Amino acid sequence: MHVRSFRTVVRILLSFTLALIACTGLAVAADDGAMRGRVVDPLGAAVAGAQVELLRDGQVVAQTTADAAGEYTFAQLADGWYAVAATAPGFARQQTAGVALRSGDAYRQTVTLPIGALRQDVVVTAATGSVSSAQVGAAVTVLDAAQLSHVQSTELLDPLRTVPGVAMVQAGQRGGLTSFFVRGGSASFNKILVDGIPANDIGGAFDFANLSTSGIERVEVLRGSNSVAYGSDAMTGVVDIATSRGRTRRPEASLTADLGNLNTRRADLSVGGLAGGFNYFASYARLNSDNNLPNAAYRNDTFSTRVGGRAGRTDISATVRTFDSVAGSPNAFAYYGVADDSISDARQTVASVAARSQWTDRWQSTLRAGVARGEIGFTNPSPSGTPSDSSAFANYLGNTVTITGANGYSVTGRAILDYGGEYPSPYVASTDRRFLFGQTGYQLSSALNIAGGLRLEHEHGETGPSFPGEVTRTNYGGFMEARGSIGSRVFVNGGLGIDHNAVFGNAATPRVSVAAYLRPPSSASAIGDTKLTFNAGRGIKAPSLDQQLSSVYSLVTAVNPSSTIVNPIGAERSRTVDVGVEQGLARGRGRVRLSYFDNAF
């Protein structure tokens, strides 16, 4: 894309988004304190006559019946924390998340009733704003707190293994580098969000080894590119992690402790609740394990918190999630017969502040700011093994071992465990990423929603002292998206993202998703619904810190800053296509999905 045309598109995106935000502010109107909304089926059709309950602090305080359009209203409400629950013949009961209401507030919540026993999730990774998974063509899996607890794992990597189409690979034992692969893409091709803030290293890498399940309320995994909404790194997938929040007037506290072999110990303490219009949650978890090899001990401390409240028509939420871990690195013990004495450590903090405003029944906006800071270190304090000779630069060998392969062949010998050189030999890399993001959307009609957004980020990364280098980038982008329906059986979502990166320049990423029903959901049919899905898009990824520093362009311009012999390193790009069919079974009690995907990188 030429620079002039890129700037034109950016101006259009900017003007569109600012116009939406400006009109949003003008759309505010006074209203009595009320909770109102609509009860719909999985495809968005009104459920007339649904029984609707208003819950305050978990107790039913009022009831009403939805009208012919599925609308309900609860007016003249006192200050408190309210939720809405609805049910109707042929549908399962559904309750919304709670919201703090104050005198003069008005809040609208749509209740989507699922058919049968299977949960109908509301997802945010597949489209701008929340949307029922029944109306989504992309492959999205949601893991809620109950599912995370059922797996009974201390690390998130184990629940993520259950997601179809992904592979979680850990090198070694607890604390070893853990990579997440989606449908054949690289481990650095996925956008990892913690409460809406990207947590990747510069260039997309993310280590799942230290991500505890403590304090996590929900995880969404999108399989497919979505650089339209999320920009760089969302090449093959998006993982969106949400911190728990307090939901009960009476404070809830939990303490769990586990003991196991290999001196494994874990404690997890959490507390949360509501106080007036304020919600709060905090958790702390510590895990220790010696693992089963020398110099393989692992420790992880994780703290997470969320606080929030409501100011007029705006929900405000602040979150912090941080961990500090240390792991011994014995190297390939079976090849050497002696453990290395290296140690790795990692720390990361992701913090965010978000304001979500519902200005009218049709107009919403979100403004989010955050920071993600991380540091990894690796230290080899002294050489391990036996010197190969008496020189100052001797290599260090492991013990004599015999390795037998799967084909029955074996080899005996001694391998180099540590090379000659200066010790200790430390390596440290740090990243500091700051984000500002805003989006707004408007429901033009029951069949069409439009949205636009802008994002700005500042990145700084350093490595050293063994391999020193430093990178600073300022990147920005924007997007437009439309979501609509054709009749009552076809749902389409499409958009275009435009990004400018300090290294690779300009990039455009389109995306389209379609869900079409040959048979609509129905509680009266034992066969269930038949849903066809199509999802296609393009993704981009910026170069990592090491890729940028070692590129030919950087090496040439370091000698001659005015050189034009080579161009700057470009963006990695992906194209993903997914076609599938989903079939409901046994009146909504089961569901199967068959899909074909074709990814190009």
Short structural description:
The protein is mainly beta and 601 residues long. Helix content is 9%, strand content 53%. The longest helix has 24 residues.
Shape: globular
Can you count the helices?
7
Radius of gyration: 27 Å
Low-confidence stretches: 1-6, 20-31
Tell me the distance between the termini: 19 Å
Proportion of residues in β-strands: over 45%
Mean pLDDT: 88
- Report the strand count: 37
Helix content: under 10%
Structural class: mainly beta
Task: Explain what this protein looks like in three dimensions.
The protein is mostly beta strands and 601 residues long. The protein is built from seven helices and 37 strands. It has a 15-stranded antiparallel beta sheet with strand order 18-19-20-21-22-23-24-30-31-32-33-34-35-36-37. Strands 2, 3, 5, 6 and 7 form a five-stranded antiparallel beta sheet that branches. The chain has a five-stranded mixed beta sheet with strand order 11-16-17-14-15. The chain starts with a helix and ends with a strand. Mean pLDDT is 88; it is low at 1-6 and 20-31.
